[in-house]
Amino acid sequence: MHLRDILAFSTLALAASVSARSITQPPKDNSPIVSATVDNGGQGSELRTENFENRCGPKYGKCGKGKCCSTAGYCGSSKAHCRSPDCQIDFGHCDGLSSPEGPSTEKIRRPKVGTVPYGPNVIRSCAVPGTVALTFDDGPREYTEELLDLLERYNAKATFFITGNNGGKGPIDDFDMPWSTLIRRMRLEGHQIASHTWSHQDLSKISHDQRKDQLLKNEMALRNILGSFPTYMRPPYSSCLPESGCLDDLGKLGYHVVLYDLDTSDYAHDSPEAIQVSKDIFNRALDPWKVTDKSWLVIAHDVHEQTVHNLTEHMLRKIRDHGYHAVTVGQCLNDPEEYWYREDSHGPLHLDKESKESRKKDNKSKSSTFKAITLDGTCGVNVTCVGSAFGPCCSSAGYCGNTTAHCSTGCQPDFGRCFWPGSDKVLPNGTTIGIPAKPKDTAAGWLPIDKDKDAAKKPAKSEAGSLLKTGTSVTTLALLTSAAVLLS
Questions:
Q1: Where are the domains of the chain?
Q2: Quick check: 51 pLDDT over 50?
Q3: CA separation, residue 163 to residues 167, 191, 266, 393, 485 (Å)
Q4: Which range, of 20-29, 341-350, 374-383, 398-407, averages the lowest pLDDT?
Q5: 60-95 domain in CATH 3.30.60?
Q6: Helix (H) or strand (E) holding 133
């Protein structure tokens, strides 16, 4: 046999061996293999095989039970697959499909009070000259605590558009996480809390029911933390197209829809070098104007390191040097603080780690503590002044009112709102803004006048009617409350 015949025979034997192996050995996974003949750009056709078992999305459909559909269209259960808003909510499980604890806020009354327009109108600028409303979207995250420290050093106020469960951070009302503590601190230090939806979905691209779900879930989570939820919101990606019905939906839910007139573009410049672009944007906006003629509504994001470590202090210095005041959105619109939130008697919900772990193990009912709005002007354990007719502040003696003695030194921030003396700021147009007190005693050594001190020892009179005496039975209180509702 010639050498070429031997080589030819060997080649045929090898080909037969490979062919036999490909027939007898299945693919390593048991996923179906789909074959298709596809055009090869005018060069004929080729046979292509693709594994569709783990694909998902509009072309492939939903993932199997418990699996998440990633933004690239693959099924899985990792954080990268399941974190919102990247996870595709229509084609699998996503962390944004979870729901906060407690009852829905859907039945809470939503009166439209004040002069600031509600949806479908859109707010794009401030109304009070000399103010700058710094707003921060998407948090809280790991940099938010440092941002709060920075704002405190400059005695500046800001508005936080809170997202409930985005970027894999977990729900904000998970009390094992730091987010609820940061949100309570925001409120105590006089910042405004607003909604940025539950999981940062594009509201123009989802259904009416999904939009409603995004707002109600975030309300529930904030209610669990604060006992109330915001009347102000900003749509994720600033996307809320009229033709989608989005603006009408937000209006029906009683929201002020807030955009901006100064975009720092910080999300696109999150490096020590690139953040200078955002600084330049801010400088170019402020420099040509007189403080008496202009105000600004600024958008930034506290989820970006350079925004917190670099850009924000630059903006605060610029605001100070130009003579502006850093205020909340509500303040820059001259909207009273009592219109910024809606109270919900089903919160706040306090869960300690021990009760939460026992609930996981034993599947027992939730351990919760609610703060009810006072009916008789007293305040303290589980009873708050906020939302009552007696005044929003709880004095050291445990009575509600709105005098300096109720709201300043000795005021109990856990059971009402607190202020410190001399905290009012007078803006260039003459508007006075009251600044809520810091958690630390910033008024050390200050004493209220005797008249106010005596007033704080007893409940303030309610403008709604005669004072209910302490010690009245629960049954009598309930009857009197029901009668007042019927007569009103």
A1: 60-95, 122-343, 371-480
A2: yes
A3: 10, 16, 18, 29, 36
A4: 20-29
A5: yes
A6: strand 131-137
**pTM of the predicted model, to two decimals?**
0.66
pLDDT score for 467:
29
At position 93, the amino acid (one-letter code) is H
Give the pLDDT confidence of 257-268 residue by residue, as tens digits.
999 999 999 999
Out of 137, 213, 266, 302, pick the active-site residue. Answer: 137
Q: Which CATH architecture has domain 122-343?
A: Alpha-Beta Barrel (3.20)
Is 301 a known active-site residue? Answer: yes
The Cα 436–Cα 414 span in angstroms is 13
CA–CA dist 139, 191 (Å, integer) = 14
Do residues 119 and 255 lie in contact, with contact meaning Cβ atoms separated by under 8 Å?
A: yes
Measure the CA–CA gap between 424 and 456, rounded to whole angstroms.
Answer: 21
In the set 191, 196, 256, 301, the catalytic residue is 301
Q: Counting Cβ atoms within 10 Å, is residue 405 exposed (0-12), middle (13-18) or buried (19+)?
A: buried
SS3 192: strand
- Asked if residues 401 and 393 have their Cβ atoms less than 8 Å apart, the reply is yes
